[in-house]
Amino acid sequence: MLDDLHAHSGAVYLLAPDEPVLEMAVKAGLPRAFTAPWERVGLAAPLPVAQALRELRLIWVNGEEQMAARFPRIAVVLPYPFALAALPVATPGTVYGAIYVTWPGSRPPELAEWEREHLTAACERLAWRLERVDAGNLPLGPDPGRLTTRRTALAGGTAGSAEAARMAARLPHGLCALDLHGSISYMNPAAAEMLGVPAGALIGSPLWAAVPWLNDPMYEDRYRAALISGQVTSFVALRPPGDWLSFRLYPGSDGLSVRIARARPLAGTGHTAGMPARGTARLVTISHLLNLATALTETVGVQDVVKLVADQIAPAVGCKALVILGSHGGRLHVLGHRGYPDEYVIERWHGVPLSEQIPGTHVLTTGVPAFFDSWQQLERLYPKRQGTQDGMASWAFLPLIASGRPVGTCVLAYAEPHPFPADERAVLTSLCGLIAQALERALLYDAKQQLAQGLQAALLPHSLPSLPGIEAAARYLPATLGMEIGGDFYDLVPTGVRAAAVLGDVQGHNVTAAGLMGQIRTAVRAYTTVGQPPAAVMRSTNRLLIDLGVELFASCVYLRLDPGPGRVVMARAGHPPPLLRRPDGQVRVLDLAGGPLLGIEAEASYPTSEFALPPGSVLALYTDGLIESPGVDIEDALAELGELLALYGDEPLEALADQLVRDTATAVERPDDVALLLLRAVRPV
Q1: Are 8 and 27 in contact (CB under 8 A)?
Q2: With 70 as the cut, is the pLDDT of residue 482 above it?
């Protein structure tokens, strides 16, 4: 595919068998260091291959600007000019995965028709082959990874190659060849002399690892830029003590050619400028670090942080398992863990007093990291430590410090003995600084969500009463954006042989709206209990809202149900009209007379309407969050809701409620809260 499309690189992803994750099965054209951050991709991730699979269509990104606008996580890690296409790999009956293909940034901005056809046909062929493999129960495993090598033969064969080497040796400027991994495959004598390292010590090693003064992320970035963009890049570096050299990198499909020449000193630069720290750790690549920093900004809750650390940091540092610990009420709390087959080994830490002398509490309270090369070292330093062996051989206990205070501890466990040199300790500690910032935000978010959900649950009915002649089911769904609390409410109030059903929506999505919602619901219940008719209940509630002076409005629909004769009296205050499904399956929109929103006009009146509710009928009361969505016409959304009610109206009421909130236009992303109350008239037994 890459050869036929003149593409630069690509990869095939397969769906993981037991989780919503795409796993990279084979890649070509780029070294593993470049693709490592995306070897496992969640189906919900904001990445092209995941979107292609979710939407089952081709995703095309034609360059840097589009990539930054649509997929910022990739743009941060790979800020280079290149184009990308992602497509699903699927048959009509089965989805297997997805692919991506990249081109240098110099290609035309649009995909040609023949390219689209070739990509689609290739993915279809691959899908059918995977289906045959699947049908034969043959194993599908990841390929360790291969790099395409499209070497161009030199004229004259072996003799030509030897003559080319002699010719390069006679040139006064330095020449060297790098493979796709950045390792040196050839170097002429002039290049070795300029670098100050014998050629024999350089062949087979990455340029920035073999030459200490080139061990700088800035120089490696130029190599990455040339390889990914397919464009010539250059940089100037200082060879100690005072020689400046220019490097020009010419990329190809199988590697890069590098021209090295002497350069003038850079203006205003001292002799120490550009000197990297010797022995810079290569434990975590630039790609990992940038991808991690970007991904951490997208985490929401604590479990998101745990999952991200498990998916991206643990593989990079080579640990087998991890635990993230926090504290609450003076005791240790396990916030999340991965990699331990026996959960008891981890849960024994939960609830341990912070005064207990174990590594997890000591690091959490002092903010000082601890590294243990072996079990014996851990036992010697903490002889009173409680618990059994966890099957691991080495551990790193890292403090998660945010806003100047420890917010948790990250424990990395290694299956084999693992020494921790100084440079690796520095890298691990720095990584945990990023994790700590995300964990602090996540802890605050989770606390806010627990508060919001508890308050919302306290303000809504815990259950609906059982009424003769009426079945009822209700759903409340918070908005997917912002705090999960709002002003939508519902209630069902028995009044002897009759009942009252009410559903409303207070303006706003905050604690004020929720508190006002609780007051309105209580007021409606009180006015109903004392026997006020529907119009009076609306008038009384309207005056209450105005007297409270909160400057918030509310919509409401109120029904007095009389299941004996099968009659309903309705009063509305600026609320969307209910839907009535008759026993024959026909759906009617009850857009009957009503009054203004509650809280606007003190003397407003609320006329009532009466209609029949024969056995087998279903009434659907809902808030506008169920039908309003950006880009969707309100009439179309209401018609869709009516079609769903007509189609599934004979199902049990609980199943019908689930169906309506799952299949409407706002099911995926809800800009507003949703409240739904379903009522079905039945013949009393």
Answers
A1: no
A2: no
Return the structure tokens found at 548.
Answer: 């409270």
DSSP 598: B
- Strands across the sheet with 405-414, in order? 331-338, 321-328, 405-414, 394-402, 370-372
* Sheet with strand 579-581: strands edge to edge: 470-477, 674-681, 618-622, 579-581, 587-589
**In the structure encoding, which two tokens stand for residue 143, read together?**
């390929």
Place of tokens 């869709």: 640
What angle is formed at CA 31 by the lines to CA 30 and CA 34, rounded to 5 degrees? 85
Cα distances (angstroms) measured from residue 518 to each of 461, 512, 536, 544: 11, 10, 19, 13
Contact 262, 248 (CB under 8 A): no
CB-CB contact of 660 with 667 (8 Å): no
SS3 78: coil
CA within 13 Å, CB half, 351: 2
Q: Is residue 657 classed exposed, middle or buried when 0-12, 13-18 and 19+ CB atoms within 10 A define those classes?
A: buried
| Beta-sheet pairing, 95-104 with 174-178 | unpaired
Cβ 324 vs Cβ 409: under 8 Å: yes
Comparing CA positions, the residue from 146, 120, 92 lying closest to residue 1 is 120
According to DSSP, the β-strands at 243-252 and 21-28 are unpaired
SS3 222: helix
Q: Which residue do the tokens 């609780």 mark? A: 518
Residue 581 and residue 618 in contact, taking contact as beta carbons nearer than 8 Å:
yes
Find where tokens 């992320």 sit: 217
According to DSSP, the residues that pair with 588 across neighbouring strands are: 580
pLDDT tens-place string over residues 247-269 = 999 988 778 899 998 887 654 44
Task: Give the residue among 474, 472, 489, 487 at the shortest CA–CA distance from 613.
Answer: 472
- Find out whether the peptide bond into 241 is cis, omega within 30 degrees of 0: yes
Q: Is the peptide bond before 108 cis (omega within 30 degrees of 0)?
A: no
Tokens coding 438: 């995300």
Residue 481 predicted with pLDDT over 60: no
Angstrom CA distances, 25 to 142, 292, 667, stand at 4, 22, 33
pTM above 0.70, yes or no: no
**What are the backbone dihedrals phi and psi of residue 492, each rounded to the nearest 5 degrees, phi first?**
-135, 115
The answer to whether the Cα torsion of 297, 299, 300, 302 is positive or negative is: negative
